[in-house]
Amino acid sequence: MSSTSNQSAVYARIRKNPRFTELVSKRQGFATLLSVIVLTIFYGFFMVVAFNPNLIGQRLSEGSYVTVGIAAELFMFIFFWVLTAVYVKRANGEFDAITEEVVRDAAKGVK
């Protein structure tokens, strides 16, 4: 059996594996959720800038040089890093474990 036909057999077994379907569904759902969160916060900020720019320019306290806009941007920066870390942790844990299981099952019996 050639290398190409071995690969095709493994790929076919992977696609037929119900755990692969589960992996794709979980990963896509999680990525979609994180994308919606990021886009909502990001574009929400720009909507505030567009429709209420005075709010963004307000100082956090009297005599402070930090404005609401700067604080919001700092929050977004940190929050997006945290979301990235959450995704990486889940990808390296749950998603990689399922991937290894699917590949191991697909490789069985193919020589």
UniProtKB/TrEMBL annotation:
The chain crosses the membrane at residues 29-51, 63-88. InterPro entries: DUF485 (IPR007436), Inner_membrane_assoc (IPR052959). Keywords: Membrane, Transmembrane, Transmembrane helix. GO terms for cellular component: plasma membrane. It comes from the Bacteria. Pfam families: DUF485. This is DUF485 domain-containing protein. It comes from Zoogloea ramigera.
